[in-house]
Write a structure and sequence with these properties.
EC 2.7.6.3, 2-amino-4-hydroxy-6-hydroxymethyldihydropteridine pyrophosphokinase, two-stranded antiparallel sheet, 32% helix, kinase, 2-amino-4-hydroxy-6-hydroxymethyldihydropteridine diphosphokinase activity, nucleotide-binding, 4 helices
Length: 157
């Protein structure tokens, strides 16, 4: 099944962290089909003097959404991530791994929402996603990655 993962890091050796996370995901989640370039972006949703490197990776997997969440959180912990957002306040982080989508899976649990509820609101997701899968369709809105990026750009200009 198609798995889309967003990765980001804004402290430490950011590029090395993204590469290490992609390698760990490949070893534990499934086949890496394609990974975007790394995009340098300003923090969104919180204040920090540290810019992010972000990427989106496309994997093929046989794992379930809950299992993928366990794996991604374990990788984050191994790579030094100690805290998640608290009440919408985000800390700087050595690695951030978010599940964007798993095939056409629709999931709303306490721990996981798929597709990721903020895909269409984040340039740091939309640009790398459009680079690797411009025709990918959001399972709920059916908008393509390209359409979502255009809409985002129209709404922020």
């Amino acid at each position: 099944m198609q798995l889309l993962i967003a990765l980001g890091a804004n402290i430490g050796s950011r590029a090395a962290a993204l590469r290490a996370a992609i390698a760990a995901l490949t070893a534990e989640v499934g086949l890496l089909v394609k990974c975007s370039a790394f995009y340098e972006t300003e923090p969104e949703g919180f204040q920090s003097s540290h810019a992010f490197l972000n990427a989106v990776a496309h994997f093929e997997t046989t794992h379930s959404a809950p299992r993928i969440l366990q794996i991604t959180q374990a990788i984050e912990r191994r790579m030094g991530r100690t805290t998640k957002s608290q009440d919408g306040i985000y800390p700087d982080r050595p690695i951030d791994i978010d599940i964007l989508a798993l095939g056409d899976t629709i999931c709303h649990t306490k721990d996981l929402t798929l597709p990721h509820p903020h895909i269409a609101e984040r340039r740091f997701v939309l640009e790398p996603l459009t680079e690797i899968l411009p025709t990918w369709r959001h399972p709920l809105t059916h908008a393509t990655a390209t359409e979502m990026l255009k809409r985002y750009e129209q709404n922020t200009n």
